[in-house]
Amino acid sequence: MSSGGALWGVGRVWLRYFDVFRKSAPYYLVTTFTEPFLYLLAFGFGVGSLIGSLEANGAQVSYRSFVFSGILGQTVLFQGFYEASYGGFVRMYYQRIFQAIAVTPITLSEVLWGELAWDASKATLAAVIIAAIGVATGDFPLRAPLAIMPVAFAASLLFSGMGLAVAARARTIEQISYPQYLLVFPMFLFCGVFFPVESLPGWLQWVAWALPLTAVNSLMRTLTLGFPFQPWAIPILAAWLVALVLYSRRAMVGRLVK
Amino acid sequence: MPPLLEVVGLSKRYRTQDGGWLEAVHEVSLSVAAGECLGLLGPNGAGKSSAIQCITGFYPPSGGAVRLAGIDVHADPKRARRTLGVCSQEDTLDSDFRVLDQLARHATYFGVPGREGERRARALLERFGIADKAAELVESLSGGMRRRLQVARALVSQPSVLVLDEPTTGLDPGMRRALWAILQEERGKGAAILLSTHYMEEAERLCDRVALLDRGHIRDLGAPRELIERHAGSAMVEEEVRPGFVWRRPPNLEDVYLKLTGARLDEAAAS
Predict the structure, then answer these.
(1) In what helix (H) or strand (E) does residue A214 lie, and over which residues does it extend?
(2) What residues contact A87, with CB distance under 8 A and at least 6 apart?
(3) Coil, helix or strand for B27?
(4) Closest Cβ–Cβ partner in B50, B79, B109 for A101
(5) Contact in structure between B97 and B141 (CB atoms under 8 Å)
(6) Is the confidence at residue B266, as pLDDT, over 70?
(7) Which of these, A8, A100, B19, B238, has the minimum number of CB atoms within 10 Å of its CB?
(8) If we measure between CA atoms, which residue out of B193, B101, B95 comes closest to residue B156?
(9) What pTM value is reported for the model?
(10) Burial (Cβ within 10 Å: 0-12, 13-18, ≥19) of residue B270
(11) Contact, B106 vs B157, CB < 8 A?
């Protein structure tokens, strides 16, 4: 195979990550699915049995299904962000993998695209498996795992971009905690994973909609629960996606290359 | 025949934290022919690593050009770097892979098919005396073994240009000599080697020519013997190596280095 094209370089980097994933599959499966499963059990089945059903965005749905769908957004948020931020920082700062590959015929730009593509693929895979479980429990229609894939991948790429940008800006690995507590956790709590955004005070609804996870959850619920489509979710998602992917790459190149 | 590595008027400037500019490399020109080893010597902060980062195409230069096998590494990095093997100063081994997989994986970045990459990897591990560690994790290797593995990795693509940044740092004398023998073999096969080192004995033994870099400028470039005669003369040097013990020896490259770079104790301490 020729080492010519940029896509070839991105693919080589993606394969490197895939091989690491494959060799440590049990570890990754435990770390990838334990957290969403626990949320599902605690909120979907535990709290869900107390609440019964709720009305959100003009639709009536069981709380368990509502949370199940929210867990899809939570999964791409956590998987994308953590893999690219902590994982990216380790690969850039401690392992220096980016630097080692970027002096081969694979360019730094391709290395970073490969990193983002893998982080997004892994998060998408996790979301698709959660959706398949939702099908098995009767919460989602049969088409849900396939139907969510484009949104799951775009959202995973977005949150991976957020993570990589954080990795590029952090001086120490501890500094990643700042965006984790000030941005990721608030999104997780207030962007519609566990309750409808409409139940927040008006000003907080605006804040929630300004953050990307609300748009992701809105689209996921349209695709899995048949909630009415909120068209503004698309430009919000697209704007964050483009901004974060471009910024993360620029920040990481700026960090590595003088 | 054109040199395999050609650096023409290479400059590199950085923006400093106070908003000013630092010229780390100033119009450096050098070339390395097939089968030649060129040493890059200089104190810490002389600009060696910056120059090497530009030569490998990782840093964009502020001026000048770098050609690997006649291909501009900044204009066409993918094609140019197919000829390049790099051992960087820092440990950049991929700790997610075991020793053999490490080399085979690196070969794939050059488009080497998997089976051929594994064959080359096994041969290199034999050659570097770490074949028995093939299935081990990188973390389990000693510092010296990791260094050897990193040099082995630079060879897995069978490069015609080798850029080695302090490859023997941390190696014991036996390992260092074994590595020198391997570098001589590579040179014998026609590789052009750019070797950055702090070991003057290493530079004198391995390098056909040596460039002395200081504050971004090449102070002089020539064969080690030539440089010694030019800057240190031929008279025996007397040194009081400990109180009351004077050592008389012929001048060497270290005398040239100290004379041209004006290395002082505070700079040595900074290293």
Answers:
(1) helix A212-225
(2) A119, A163
(3) strand
(4) B109
(5) no
(6) no
(7) B19
(8) B101
(9) 0.91
(10) exposed
(11) yes
